[in-house]
């Protein structure tokens, strides 16, 4: 990679990180391209060079944050030790952290905005389909689940949908005590199901 | 009730219904007080008389839509026949419809907006806590679940959190085929758990 390419890559990364941060901190309507460029410390010209529209920037940020989230989960999961039960416990904790963390919140802002913005929605749908498949595959891998057995695929899907619901329940207040109790019961169910 | 009170009540109802419709159709940022008054066919003066601020209108609408949703579920559930298994099946279907319908979408718009609007959030949190408790109680009642038995409370909560997650998964595309398959498996699990 040339020095020029490296600089470009670093600028893009700063813009994408700033987009995620601004979506988290200010919500969809507050995360304007001006605010994002300022947060990234990137000129408007450079921003427009890399991402000509707000939609282009946000879509790239959604992909970037999905990759970052998967990478974080994978790294932490690689350090896991213990038997199957302890491993399941820790994997669910890792996933629950992801679904209540800043990356989930930023993604939710984009999903909700895309619902009433046809152009954004059309571009987002294939990205989200891929992200969803990758998240499912990662969860199967981390849990060591055997999807050829009946009901296992649905159990993994239900886990991810449950975690998404718990993420939304955590938006306005800290739902940790309720979530902890609920997930303790869920882990026991899941251990029997997968 | 006097004729004047009846007219006031009807005006309020029109405004609240219009608020829910506009949140659904245009999202949070598009559902301005002007757009809502126009949709309701109510003058700006009358709107301001009943709901002096946008926050007051939206908070009243959230309560109104929660009541309407509970009422709809209750009415449909009252018509249910069949054995325990058939009843569980139909109750989950009713709840899944509620969590993928326009009232859920309107509420989600408000939750997400409230996350980055401290004033709205502070007013919304106690309302949502009450709505959440009532939804839980209604679900327990409709399922005929006995919460004194260990794990039953968590199973009912997990059902509602799962349905919330499925509601979000249905925002941008029609997720019905996947949801139907997932819920078929969930109903079997739930029947064993409650």
Automatic annotation (TrEMBL), chains A, B:
The keyword DNA-binding applies. Keywords: DNA-binding. Residues 32-51 bind DNA. Residues 9-69 form the HTH tetR-type domain. The keyword Ligase does not apply. It comes from the Bacteria. Pfam families: TetR_N (PF00440). PANTHER family: HTH-TYPE TRANSCRIPTIONAL REGULATOR PKSA, HTH-TYPE TRANSCRIPTIONAL REGULATOR RUTR. This is TetR family transcriptional regulator.
């Amino acid at each position: 990679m040339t020095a020029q390419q490296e600089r470009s890559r670093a600028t893009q990364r700063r813009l994408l990180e700033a987009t995620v941060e601004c979506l988290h901190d200010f919500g969809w309507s507050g995360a304007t391209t001006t605010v994002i460029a300022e947060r990234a410390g990137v000129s408007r010209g450079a921003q427009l060079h890399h991402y000509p529209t707000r939609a282009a920037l946000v879509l790239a940020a959604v992909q970037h944050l999905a990759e970052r989230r998967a990478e974080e989960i994978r790294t932490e999961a690689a350090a896991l030790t213990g038997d199957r039960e302890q491993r399941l416990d820790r994997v669910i904790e890792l996933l629950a952290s992801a679904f209540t963390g800043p990356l989930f919140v930023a993604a939710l802002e984009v999903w909700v905005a895309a619902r009433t913005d046809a152009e954004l929605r059309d571009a987002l749908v294939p990205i989200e389909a891929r992200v969803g498949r990758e998240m499912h595959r990662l969860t199967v891998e981390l849990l060591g689940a055997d999807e050829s057995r009946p009901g296992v695929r649905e159990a993994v899907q239900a886990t991810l949908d449950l975690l998404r619901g718990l993420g939304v329940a955590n938006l306005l207040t800290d739902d940790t005590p309720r979530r902890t109790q609920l997930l303790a019961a869920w882990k026991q169910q899941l251990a029997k199901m997968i």
